[in-house]
Specification:
There is one protein chain. Helix content is 40%, strand content 19%. By secondary structure, the protein is α+β, with helices and mostly antiparallel strands. Strands 3-2-1-4 form a 4-stranded mixed β-sheet. One of its GO terms (cellular component) is microtubule organizing center. This is CCD81 protein.
């Protein structure tokens, strides 16, 4: 499966990240900002977005108001895939994502068009960033991965 390529037995070497070496930090951030916008648009349509290492979705949860009343609210969540959690021994809050929600992968063509990049560059940038993320998990380093 797609996830298996992010289960790293060995440390990453720079040769595994050729696109990230060629792009500037600004260009990498541009790709991920576009990916974030794409994910947000899909979540607003109640779609589930799978990115190789896990899934973004919107779930319903209850919030208690001051008056003691419960209010149902929707909140975005990221659920790392089960293989990733097991392989890297991640402790994550278990979030139940509805099975009936349509699940879609990232649309690299749309993400690339949004920022006027070639689709292959966007796809490789995202793949290599996820590989780098997996490498930090493998090496037990602290990492922050933020989406707007």
């Amino acid at each position: 499966t797609k996830t298996m390529k992010y289960l790293l037995f060995n440390a990453l070497v720079p040769e595994q990240l050729p696109t990230l070496k060629e792009l500037t930090t600004t260009e990498i951030c541009k790709v991920w900002a576009s990916a974030s916008r794409y994910i947000r648009r899909q979540l607003l349509q109640k779609k589930v977005v799978e990115i190789g290492i896990g899934t973004f979705a919107v779930i319903q949860t209850c919030a208690t108001l001051e008056q003691g009343k419960d209010l149902t609210v929707e909140r975005p969540v990221f659920q790392p895939c089960r293989f990733l959690k097991t392989f890297y021994q991640l402790k994550c809050e278990e979030t139940k994502i509805l099975e009936e929600a349509p699940s879609i992968p990232l649309d690299f063509e749309q993400i690339a068009a949004d920022i006027h990049f070639r689709q292959e560059i966007v796809e490789q940038c995202i793949h290599e960033t996820l590989l780098f993320f997996a490498g930090t998990l493998r090496d037990n380093k602290e990492v922050e991965f933020s989406f707007k």
